[in-house]
Amino acid sequence: SLAAESLVHSYSKSFSGFAAKLTKAETEKLSGHEGVVSVFPSQLRQLHTTRSWDFIGFPQTVARATVESDVIIGMLDTGIWPESQSFNASGYGPPPQKWKGTCQSSSNFTCNNKIIGARFYHAGQDLNDGETISPRDTEGHGTHTASTAAGNIVTHASLLGLAAGTARGGVPSARIAVYKICWTLGCSDVDILAAFDDAISDGVDIISLSVGGAPTDYFQDAIAIGAFHSMKNSILTSNSAGNSGPAAGTVSNVSPWSLSVAASTIDRKFATGVKLGNGRTYVGGSINTYEASRMYGLIYGGDALNRTSGSDSRSCGAGSLDRDLVRGKMVHCDGVSRGDEQARVGAVASTMSLPPDTPLDAAFSFLLPVSVLTNADSAQILEYINSTSDPTGLIFKTRAIIDNSSPHVIDFSSRGPNPITTDILKPDLTAPGVDILAAWSEATTVTGQDGDTRTVPFNIISGTSMSCPHASAAAAYVKSFHPTWSPAAIKSALMTTARQLSVEDNSDAEFAYGSGQIDPIKAVNPGLVYDAGEIDYVRMLCGQGYNATQLRLVTGDSSASCSEATDGTVWDLNYPSFALSSKLKTSVTRVFHRTVTNVGSATSTYTAIVNGPVGFDTIRVEPNVLKFKNIGEKQSFVVTVTALLAKLKQSGIISGVLVWSDGSHKVRSPVVAHTLQ
């Protein structure tokens, strides 16, 4: 029996399980018990940290369902700042009748008819001194994601004058339920599962989770387990794909029953000018809210070594700079840092150099005026410093400029292929996640660093954490028009209507952007959907080697088993994309069975259009015409793909596409082939 003092949390509302403090011997003993599906250590997961909605063609004037205010988005994050105008409850009626949740109010936190529920969890980790033990957000991340998904329309929003305009969430009249799972040290699996358990029981419609860790087996992955039970209860989980790009195979949150969202740019970026004493100017990237007052002395970090530190000062690392040499000057550094060392020694500004061949992409805020420059421009600044006895410079306040190259997937966004199930394409799609303005907690500052005094109601940050709530809102928007659609149907609608991105601008192709960039308006009327339910995922898991005991305990269904009837291949999972892989660079053939459901015109005929470039020997669709007579009617087809993997492109992927078209709807699915490196 388990000692009461060892028990950390018991999960009982939506699935069965518990978290406990166990020795290695106790863990091994428990793993061997009948009725135990898996025992895994609780890990600490990390957060995947106005213009965006207009950019993807989703204006403020878009048609809204009358029941949008009945849609509830569960935000699993760092909490929320309830005083933000983004969450003002004016004009809202009481919570929807289906809501069964609660508000863990305290002396410093209350809910309203916008934030209809709020809970916090910290069973999984010890908290630092000064943590706010309530659903209140003291970090900013949760407030930002919640307002991106469902924040009210707020005019005159900006970050100290930058990105000025109207801020709004994708579904501004939807309700928000807050589950604070993340603290200073991270987000514990124990708390993540507890939040899923509550959110499902509370009655949320969509779960948005901008958190992740290293990819792992589905049923040793707390997020995948929680998302599976959400799916069973008709709730789609929208996940960030991770910020570990551009390396291949880094994508996280890859379970096929959840939505994995990459991060892409919008057509606004931030430029921060640098002027030198010789009159030359350069344009770097950052978010600098400070106004330049005059020229300052300019010094290279490599010339300002703190000789007692024993470290290299060229990159301005911790403790490396001499305060007497740097105080009151602008310092140029090789490499990009948070700027703590420059601030510590009294620098007034800093230019920072990117590595060679690294693009100026996302812009970030710093403790002091900073401009991050290309390696080539940095070399010219260093040349200027070495050419004069009195080098000077200044950094201008950042300005917004148009980026006509967008959208493209940002460098940091994690890439496929899927490291757990290689023949399911991940990420699923992409959404805006770069330089996003949204609400912020006023319990912190712009950077959250010591010495930063800028308390702001809105902030600009980047990450797949920012793209995830865009997709969560798009899913909620579709759900508001189609409240009975399954999570798989909503996901299919988002994927098959996504805007295909350019391979020229995204060399990793579908490994970067999946099906493409979300288009919420088109997703409401996709024509056909690839639907799937629990039994479909069980078949896939049987084919992946899970046994009947594991399935019964995971699904809660005592009749679940792996048999001929339920042993399916991954290629037969009714997924809205097609992927095949091989260890060898040879010719490989796979057969995919799919079924589509008509959600468009009752009487309609769809014809298959295939684009299979060099590298595909065949992409054959049988039948290649589907005729429907009723809404809800299902039709099945078979796709046979033969890929010539010897003709792989540099990206390691061969990209094709299958489109079902009835003349007005285009139901598009990527078809990809790759080798296992």
From TrEMBL:
Name of the protein this chain belongs to: Cucumisin
Domain Subtilisin-like protease fibronectin type-III: from-to ranges: 572-672
Organism: Linum tenue
BP-aspect Gene Ontology terms: proteolysis; response to symbiotic bacterium
Chain ranges of the Peptidase S8/S53 domain: 69-514
SUPFAM superfamilies from the UniProt entry: Subtilisin-like
The keyword Cell cycle belongs to this UniProt entry's keyword annotation: no
Record GO terms (molecular function): serine-type endopeptidase activity
PROSITE patterns recorded: SUBTILASE, SUBTILASE_SER
GO cellular component assignments: extracellular region
Domain Inhibitor I9: 4-48
Keywords: Hydrolase, Protease, Secreted, Serine protease, Signal
Location in the cell: Secreted
Keyword Secreted included in the entry's annotation: yes
Family note: Belongs to the peptidase S8 family.
Entry-linked Pfam families: fn3_6, Inhibitor_I9, Peptidase_S8
Active site: D77 (charge relay system), H141 (charge relay system), S465 (charge relay system)
Protein origin, superkingdom: Eukaryota
